[in-house]
């Protein structure tokens, strides 16, 4: 059976692993998942990830904790296959007054809402992280 929404699968695996207290989680590899994980790593929500670019390979994600609790309090899918959410530069959401991030897929790559506003581009709002 094929996976209908691989980004939701990524977010759910991260959410479930962190709630269970796991140090790491493995997910199937894809370019968009690597881009999202790069944003999460740059913003300090995960410790790191590794994996090769071979087809059907796995990505190994090291989750981040602070004083025994997960750094990611909430990770939520916004745009989904049945309802795509596109926003212009000025309409990009601010998560919890700027404390969280929105991951946006733009024509200049996957980036945070803050970087997209600075670059003056809009795009598809993939998920929010706080």
Outline the fold blueprint.
Layout: H1 6-20, E1 24-28, H2 31-42, E2 46-50, E3 58-63, E4 65-66, E5 69-70, E6 75-77, E7 86-87, E8 101-106, E9 109-112, H3 113-119, E10 123-129
Antiparallel strand pairs: 1-3, 2-3, 4-5, 6-10, 7-10, 8-9, 8-10
Largest sheet: 5 strands, antiparallel
Number of helices: 3
* Helix-strand sequence: HEHEEEEEEEEHE
Indicate the proportion of strand residues: 25-35%
Which stretches of 5+ consecutive residues score pLDDT under 50?
none
For the terminal residues, how far apart are their CA atoms? Answer: 32 Å
Q: State the secondary-structure class.
A: alpha+beta
Describe the structure.
With 130 residues, the chain is α+β, with helices and mostly antiparallel strands. It has 3 helices and 10 strands. Strand 8 (101-106) and strand 9 (109-112) form a beta hairpin.
């Amino acid at each position: 059976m094929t996976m209908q929404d691989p980004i939701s699968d990524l977010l759910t695996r991260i959410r479930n692993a962190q709630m269970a207290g796991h140090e790491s989680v493995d997910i199937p590899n894809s370019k968009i998942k690597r881009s999202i994980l790069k944003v999460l790593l740059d913003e300090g929500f995960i410790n790191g990830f590794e994996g090769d670019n071979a087809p059907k390979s796995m990505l190994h994600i090291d989750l981040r904790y602070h004083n025994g609790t997960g750094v990611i309090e909430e990770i939520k899918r916004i745009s989904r296959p049945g309802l795509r959410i596109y926003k212009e530069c000025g309409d990009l959401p601010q998560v919890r007054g700027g404390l969280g991030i929105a991951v946006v897929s733009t024509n200049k790559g996957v980036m945070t809402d803050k970087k997209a506003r600075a670059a003056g581009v809009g795009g598809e709002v993939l998920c929010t992280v706080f």
